[in-house]
Every structure is written in C-alpha cells, then in structure tokens.
Design brief:
By secondary structure, the chain is mainly α. It has ten helices and two strands; from the N terminus they run αααααβααααβα. The termini are far apart.
C-alpha cells in the first residue's frame, strides 16, 4: 500500500480533455476492428491462421507460405493488441485523473477486459472452423465493447451530480424499447449473415436457416425500428426536447442509410464491399441508438455541502429564548 501511495505522488494528473480523447479513440478503434474483422471474412481469410492462439502449430506468426489469407488473418489479430493498448492507456489515465470520479474506472476496466474476451471468442471461431453461431457471437461481443466504450466517453463529459430525466417517463420507456429493438436487429442480422455467402472460408458451414425467410424477419425488424424512431422524433418534439429530437433524427438517418445498403446488397447477391459497409453501419446504428438513450437524461453538477457556520446552517438551527 505504501508503494502505491509513493508511486501516486510521482504520477502526473491526466486532464479531462485527454481522458475523453482516449475514450473516443477506444470507440473508433473498436469500430475499426469490427470492419477489419469483416475484411477477414469477406476475403475468405477466416482460417488464414488455421489454429489459435498460434497462427500454425509451429508458429505464432504467419509465414510467407501462407500467402495473403495468412497475412490478413494474422494482421487482424495484431490489431487486437493495438486496441487493447488504447484501452489500457484509458484505464491508466482514469487512475491518474484527479480528482477521482465515480464510475469511470469500472467502465474503463470493462472495456479493457472486453477486448481479450472478444479475442478468445475469435479464437473459438477458428477452433470451431468458423461456426456461424460463434462468428455471430464474436460480432456481438464487439458490439458490447463498443457500447461500454461509448458509455465511458459520455460519462467523462458529464458532471458528477445526480441523473435527471429531461423527458417524461413514458418517452424514456419508448426509448429503451427502441434501443432494445436496435439490438435485436443486430442479433437477427448475424443470423442472416450466417445463412448466406461470405463464410470466411470455402469449407465453413452455414447455420442452416433459409436465407430468404430470415432476411424477411430481419427486414420486418428494421421496419419496426424505423417506425419507433419516427415515433420518437414526433414525441420528443411534442414535449420540446430539442436535444433528444436531434439525436432521434440522426438515428433515423443512420437507419435509412443502413437499410438502403441492406436492400441493395440483397438484390445484388450480397457483394463483399456492401457487406463490409453494412457491418460499419451496424456499429453506427448502435452508437446512434445509445446517443438517443443518453439524450433523455442529464447530470447536474455536484452542489457543495454547506460548511459549519454558513447562513444555510444557521437558518437550520432553531432559535432559542
């Protein structure tokens, strides 16, 4: 304990601006690794390194004999370390920030621990020969890490006072429902991907679902999400919640763009480039939905407690004869 205190004396405090930039970098890095992970699958490089945690039974790194597929898969594995270093730097920055702020460390640690957990799931996808259900779980784990990184970024920019709702309770419930439907759209999207082409390797199995039927379920859930988003816009406008209205408009625009990409890729037989754009769009939909969630509440600054002898305390003491 004494050693920790001694080290803290020589740790230079980290500014809130730097802390927020690190949290934003963590969001961008985790979105980036989703896109690069999609590139691995779309180039059929999912088994470029045929085992895990080694790349081959005899080597931790890709060799020249493994060609492009080995380089792509191994390169994506190396990006995990870069994302992890950003998350670790964020944890250290939270520890060095003064004054200590409640909630930040738990979120930063959650992001940091989520990255190796996501990497382990990625390893399981390799060991199971790209089982489509495990591949989908790998994607959803990345979404969870992105959500935690976004929560950390927003929390850093807030004061430390109590949370206050800025819209009526029914609208907050409607917002939660919309966010839940957005998550459901992402989940069903992994089922669609697991039923179609771009398995990540020519020998990888598919999940056995009928592509047309599950695509229709996915489309129906998207239409439900669009309807809820439009309802949020009008409801927020009705109560004068301008910030929430803007967030809901952004969500709707992102959904429309994502939906357009989805329909085009379906009717053009799922070209790889559009699948990659659709994966990026999935991250943006999640972030936009979370932004709407945050727009329905705000935190007020902490009010200092009255000190002894202040007028407020004097008024609280009853007068005596």
């Amino acid at each position: 304990m004494r050693r920790i205190c001694a080290v803290n004396r020589y740790v230079r405090p980290v500014s809130g601006t730097l802390l927020r930039r690190l949290a934003l970098a963590s969001i961008i890095a985790n979105v980036g690794i989703v896109v690069t992970g999609g590139a691995v699958r779309l180039t059929a490089s999912g088994l470029g390194c045929p085992t895990w945690p080694r790349c081959t039974d005899a080597s931790y790194v890709a060799t020249s004999e493994m060609g492009l597929h080995g380089a792509v898969e191994f390169g994506n594995r190396m990006l995990t370390f870069a994302v992890g270093l950003i998350a670790l730097a964020t944890v250290l920055a939270v520890l060095a920030h003064r004054p200590r702020r409640p909630g930040l460390l738990a979120l930063a640690v959650a992001v940091f621990l989520g990255i190796p957990a996501q990497a382990v799931i990625g390893g399981i996808t390799v060991l199971t020969n790209l089982n489509p259900w495990v591949v989908g779980l790998h994607f959803l784990a990345s979404m969870a890490v992105i959500a935690a990184a976004y929560a950390l970024w927003r929390r850093i920019g807030e004061p430390d006072g109590p949370t206050v709702a800025v819209v009526p309770a029914p609208l907050r419930t409607l917002t939660r429902v919309t966010t839940g439907v957005a998550v459901a759209v992402l989940v069903v999207g992994t089922w669609v991907t697991g039923s179609g082409p771009h398995a990540g390797d020519q020998g990888a199995a598919r999940n056995g679902l009928d592509p047309e039927s599950i695509s229709q379920v996915h489309a129906d859930s998207v239409f439900l999400l669009l309807g809820l988003s439009v309802a949020l816009i009008f409801a927020f406008r009705a109560v004068g919640a301008r910030r929430a209205t803007r967030a809901a408009v952004v969500l709707l625009v992102v959904e429309l763009g994502q939906g357009l990409i989805g329909f085009v890729q379906y009717f053009t037989h799922v070209p790889a480039i559009l699948v990659g754009a659709h994966m990026l769009g999935s991250c943006l939909v999640l972030l936009a939905a979370l932004a709407v969630q945050w727009s329905t509440r705000e935190r007020h600054p902490l009010t200092p407690a009255p000190q002894a002898g202040t007028p407020a305390e004097a008024e609280a003491v009853p007068a005596t004869a």
